[in-house]
Queue: 3 jobs
Job 1
Amino acid sequence: MTKRKTIFVYLIGLALVVLLWHQVFLMTGVLWWNAPEPGQRLAAFPAQVLTPPSTQHVDLPAFLQTHPEWNPH
């Protein structure tokens, strides 16, 4: 390829990378015009309240007979 074509291919590649990075920042919402002011502090999210799952279907004595030692692996 000639030098002019090589430069053109590099410029197209650079433009593609810049476009892809812009899309990533656009999808995540991290853009400089949406950024909070340096002294501005955002409020924390409220804590989630999680209810434990029902364990009524578990036969604990039978499980402990077949698994006398707890081994998560």
Note: The two ends are 57 Å apart (CA to CA).
Job 2
Amino acid sequence: MQLSPARFNHFLAKVGQHVTWRKANQCPCRDPYSGAPSPTCHVCTNGILWELEVKTYLALSSMKLQQAWAQFGIAERGDVVCTLPSDAKLYRMGEYDRVRMDDSSQPFSMQFTNTGPVKLNFSVLCIDRLFWLDSGQTVAIDGTIPTQKDDGTLAFGARPPPANTQFTITGRRKPEYFVFQEFPQDRAHFGGEDLPRRVILRNLDLFKRAN
């Protein structure tokens, strides 16, 4: 029986999620012998440069596949097994590519110190609260909640936190992952046909540990 990529893709389109994909490239700063990135490079992130964002889609694999991946012994909590349709723009994505789940959100609460521009390395969906401590009391910004600029930095408005003061930001963000590796599978390219692939996505916060 001939497997049909078109039918696979049609099904995955119905159950897929909208995502933003950024292709990864190794930075030229890497040492040619050790492969380690230069600690003084201001262009890359731990030896990786990501290309511009591309809007596309993928599908989350079944719980059975998630459990199968966990049995390999190198799984991390929060790893996600995804299926890539052959007609999606990210079909040939590879190691360290970034994927942001645009249909999902998760809460966050993080501490920062106001010593200059505050930059968040993730996409904020909304900021619910920003506050700091003063004489044992919490102080919240009055008026407009901070917004995130295109480069990730925060715009505080008329009243930023005092200089050199530690403060907390609470809100929701879009989950972001990187491609950890391809999930072992049969029929990857049955008879030369581009059938769906499976990859492991790992929380982007763990990126430095994997690279």
Note: The first strand starts at residue 17 and ends at 22.
Job 3
Amino acid sequence: MTSQLGDANRTAGEVAERLGDWLTGNGVQSDSGAFCAWRDEDGLLAFEYPEITGYALTWLAGRPSLTAAGQEAGRRAARWLVERLAAGNRAAHDGWDEGAVYTFDLGMIAAGMISYGRRFDEAQTVERGELLAGELAKLALTNPFMPAVAPDGPPTGRPSSWSTAGRPHLAKCVQALMLIEEWDAAAHLIADACTFQDPSGYFLTQPDEQIVMLHPHFYTVEALWMWGTARGDDDALERAHRATEWAWRHQLPAGGLPRMVALDEDTVAPEQFDLTSQGVRAGLLTGAGLDRLEKAVSRLCTSALPLPDGAALPYQPQAESLHQNSWVSLFGAQALELAAQPGEVSLAWHELV
């Protein structure tokens, strides 16, 4: 798809580079090598986050080239995940939710380990990632639908929501499944996700609730785009386009996207930059909402927090404390890199963070 973002392209590229400097410059990695959820205004790191460490490996694996700092960041992150999995620890993160294991997180970890390990010839990282992806394939094929919480781990103590009981967002695990060529398992996830799409375009992300959380909505879009791109599935690509168009109808006046959309009432939810970044990326990849993207790209660029070692994006710009968020910065860096591409936008399906 063609970017068509005019003067915003150059600024987007500059901000993307600064975000990348921060992500690869030890700005959000712990001493162990894990990528943490965020760094607060006082410089303190939040918890070590396995899912986000997986995303970071996918992003690093997709870089055309890496600085010495980037190579070291990836090596440390991969080693941390290998050691964690070898010890049998698959919890979402330590000291939280009774140690529950989320299948979505495992998919993101597996995809990152496989892509990074193959790119940089790290056999142990590839082996652990492929084993994890194989477990997910078996889970997908031996159940009517993929469970959000792994049945062989502790039950979640959290209320029913998209992350604990939702289904369409789990389709993003197809990235890991396709990397090990488990096509039947991947097709099973895609088919299940499609049953949750309304004719107007949205995915019903919440069990028994008339709201659409845009974070898992875009995860589903990303899954359909990856599958459609890899398999030449025009129906999947059309569904991703329609879902992205629907989301951009809810753009906020400032240019970003809201946390959620209530289907049965007029509720204005907080602006959230992981969603805006996902929306920009999905729009550029599917060709949807292109007339709205320039304002969103500008919003991300002007909201990036300048730091001595680069820049970072906050989670919600209206929050009293603007911490430097790791996954928002990863999504934002990739979205702005795509926005900065002249002409046709290009990204391999296995490089999508």
Note: The CA atoms of residues 33 and 75 lie 8 Å apart.
